[in-house]
Write a structure and sequence with these properties.
This protein has helices spanning 3-10, 42-48, 50-61, 142-148, 150-164, 170-173, 177-186, 189-192, 229-235, 251-258, 265-276, 278-284, 300-307, and strands at 19-29, 32-41, 89-101, 107-116, 126-129, 132-134, 196-203, 210-219, 242-248, 290-292. It is α+β, with helices and mostly antiparallel strands.
């Protein structure tokens, strides 16, 4: 029995064997990056890539090995050769929301963090950005998704945003292009997610998939996700895959999660990059930790206090 069916039966995983894009090659041109992909099934990824992750865990935990065994898969398959397995392509987006009105009246910037518990297929009990998911075409638009290329990466981000932020179930509400487009219009996502930028393309060292990492900047003013901190929290429905929270966007918080023992590899490496280039990134993306602070009433008591410090 293949690994995918074994894990679904004995690990009680809620895997869906949907059409999935796999990474074939990567190149750059003057116009930007080019990702070459091909189509297969999600179980192809489980059966040819996820094995590396479970073998590594077994060797470290039960065999007490400090490095992969000579007889293991990692020493017998070149992990940089994408032709020897189905290297699934994942898409992750750090969602930064600016111009949020906080409870104290200040206008600030925050980001969404996902603690992945429950029925997640990968990175269980870890912190990750949201939205994220496998790059998959919709059942009724496979050829269209293949042709549109990069535009389809945005479709994956929008689909995952609808599922992981607004709480729509994948199998019920976002499995067809018609239903998905209705939800995109309902939440005005073409406008809400218009400022999305590619940050990196990375290789996951455990399950060996390729992850496209992006940054999405949302202006809370007039957006469907809400304008105040309280309103945004109330609109985050999520699914039964863990909790999505708002975190302060500042250099200290970014560094904390870059080194956090529960953070995913993708989050760690990209947050470290953001930390190392923090000033340049916030200037280029026009995002700031706190835009305005609440005004303090100028009382007589305050005036007297200030006058006592005059020379």
């Amino acid at each position: 029995m293949p690994f995918s069916y074994n894990s679904k039966e004995y690990l009680e995983k809620t895997y869906f064997n949907k059409p999935t894009f796999a990474f074939k090659d990567f190149s750059t041109t003057e116009k930007g990056a080019i990702l070459e992909v091909y189509l297969g099934d999600y179980y192809d990824f489980l059966d040819t890539c996820m094995l590396f992750q479970y073998e590594t865990a077994y060797e470290y935990k039960y065999l007490n090995l400090k490095k992969p065994s000579k007889k293991g898969l990692r020493n017998n398959f070149d992990l940089l050769n994408t032709e020897n397995r189905f290297v699934a392509l994942g898409v992750s987006a750090l969602t930064i929301i600016k111009n949020i009105t906080a409870e104290d009246g200040s206008v600030c910037t925050k980001f969404l963090l996902h603690e992945r518990i429950g029925n997640v297929a990968a990175s269980v009990n870890q912190f990750h950005v949201v939205p994220s998911g496998s790059h998959q075409p919709l059942y009724d638009s496979i050829e269209q998704c293949i042709i549109k290329g990069t535009e389809n990466l945005m479709l994956t981000i929008k689909r995952e945003f609808i599922e992981e932020i607004f709480g729509h179930e994948e199998t019920e509400n976002t499995s067809s292009i018609e239903m998905l487009n209705e939800l995109i219009v309902k939440y005005n996502l073409d406008n809400v997610l218009k400022d999305t930028y590619l940050l990196s393309v990375g290789f996951h060292p455990l399950d060996t998939h390729i992850d496209v990492f992006a940054i999405t900047i949302i202006n809370a003013i007039g957006s469907s996700i809400g304008t105040t901190e309280k309103e945004i929290i109330s609109k985050i429905k999520g699914k039964n895959e863990g909790e999505v929270t708002l975190q302060n966007f500042n250099k200290g918080t970014i560094k904390n999660y870059a080194e956090h023992h529960k953070a995913t590899v993708s989050l760690k490496s990209n947050f470290q990059f953001i930390y190392d280039n923090y000033d340049d990134i916030i200037n280029q993306l026009n995002i700031y930790e706190v835009t305005t602070r609440p005004t303090t009433k100028n009382t007589t008591k305050n005036k007297k206090k200030r006058n006592t410090h005059k020379s």
